[in-house]
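Handout, section 4.2: multi-component inputs.
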Amino acid sequence: QKEVEQDPGPLSVPEGAIVSLNCTYSNSAFQYFMWYRQYSRKGPELLMYTYSSGNKEDGRFTAQVDKSSKYISLFIRDSQPSDSATYLCAPGKGGATNKLIFGTGTLLAVQP
Amino acid sequence: SQTIHQWPATLVQPVGSPLSLECTVEGTSNPNLYWYRQAAGRGLQLLFYSVGIGQISSEVPQNLSASRPQDRQFILSSKKLLLSDSGFYLCAWSRQGSYEQYFGPGTRLTVT
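Output:
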């Protein structure tokens, strides 16, 4: 079983839709949960992160963690064509090295 | 502000040839540094990380090696490339004690 599972998509939605992107993980030692956005042929950029369970909102983006079910979500409101990218979840355990375990990413296409 | 550079951006090398990829970070000191590989359809795989000059930890046994000759310089090398070394190589940095990793633009390597 992989430590982090993520549906690869592609996920196609119309502009303005609410998008839900999800990951599951198996290691209960993960403490913080990152979301990265990666445009085609570019390096990933940090979108937002949460520590432990709960919600965090940043503009049109909301990150949600449910540690009891080991489930991570990223919601995008009022999706725009510029949101079309691959979204990577990456939980980590903390510690001196702060290593992250990346999911395979979900490809999102927002149609104008 | 901090900036991370990688070069070259693109590289095509024959099987059996050597490899040297370079990553440098500006605007910070004593960062954690990471090398990842992203193969098509797969997530980011951590190859090496470093918490200081000369301190390298390997995550995956392979024919690659890493070095950190200066505080903000990280080099990925190979003596003889294999076809399976093809991929998108990404360097990242984080502040000591921080969860947030920031990625460079990447090097796309094709081994022929």
